[in-house]
Amino acid sequence: MPLLIITIRDSRGVHEFTQVPQRVVALQWDILENLVGLGIRPAGAADIASWAEWVREPALPDGIVDVGTRAEPNLERIAELKPDLILIGPTQEDLLPQLKGIAPVLLFENYRAESAEGEAETAIAQFRELGRLFRAEDRAEAEIARIEAGLAELRDKVKRAFGTAPEVQVIRFSSLTTLFVYTPNSICDYALKKMGIRQPLQLPNASYGLTQVRIRDLKDYTDAYVVYIRPFAMEKKVLNSILWCATPFARKGHVAAAEPYWSHGGAPSILVTARRITDALLTLAPGAGQ
């Protein structure tokens, strides 16, 4: 019987596996999301307790052991799980020597401003790579096709509601006077473009697809709709501030909240991003709520 050899490329190079990993630990949320999207339940993962607040979808399957935070994973707890593969991102790269002493390690990196591909394209490529490793190629391709079909459906839904594709600026509040906007390399911008939507504020690519600006930097966008992403602890305070209320979109009532989702996820988050934004945007469509 010929030896099984699975060749996988991560951010460090090419690796060969002679069997499909069975006990995996994922230390980065985008990687964990990709695993769940492939129907794989890891033995352990980082920051499980925060998942329901910041990510929500997809829901995590039961039985995953929490191995600490993404910034400081618990190496002893990881070792106790006896993993045959550890999946990490750049946040854990400094722990590579210790982790390699426990199990083989694959590093999947995304979200650099200078990357040749955008975050969504990279997430899809990594999703396919993991699909090959776990012999789930058909599931990976079916999920990618589902994402593309879902984006097309949402594009049509927005166009029907507004008559044309509106300009939409998606933001995350960072303080009472500043906010984050999504740059062209972000998953958010990719999803918007797939839906035929343009963000009026176009800035250079940035790490994690986010750039901080001041609220007053949006003062000239008179025709734009603004969707802000929850959670933000001071949401009510900022929405009632003089600075925010003076913006043209606030005066017109062209502002809606999107329920929480993770902006820096794996391939499944592309469609989640689009759905969250669309759900918020449709509350602002002409005739909505009548």
Automatic annotation (TrEMBL):
The cross-references to PANTHER family, in alphabetical order and at most eight, read:
IRON III DICITRATE-BINDING PERIPLASMIC PROTEIN, IRON(3+)-HYDROXAMATE-BINDING PROTEIN FHUD
Protein name stated in the entry: Iron-siderophore ABC transporter substrate-binding protein
User: Which family is this protein grouped under?
Assistant: Belongs to the bacterial solute-binding protein 8 family.
Can you say where in the cell this protein is located? Answer: Cell envelope
- Residues forming the Fe/B12 periplasmic-binding domain are 23-288
Keyword flag Transport: yes
Q: Which Pfam families match?
A: Peripla_BP_2 (PF01497)
Name any GO cellular component annotation: outer membrane-bounded periplasmic space
Q: Which domain of life is it from?
A: Bacteria
Q: Which UniProt keywords apply?
A: Ion transport, Iron, Iron transport, Signal, Transport
* Listed InterPro entries: ABC_transptr_periplasmic_BD, Bact_iron-sidero_bind
Among SUPFAM superfamilies, the record links this protein to:
Helical backbone' metal receptor (SSF53807)
Which biological process, per GO, is one annotated for this protein? iron coordination entity transport
Q: Does the keyword Iron apply?
A: yes
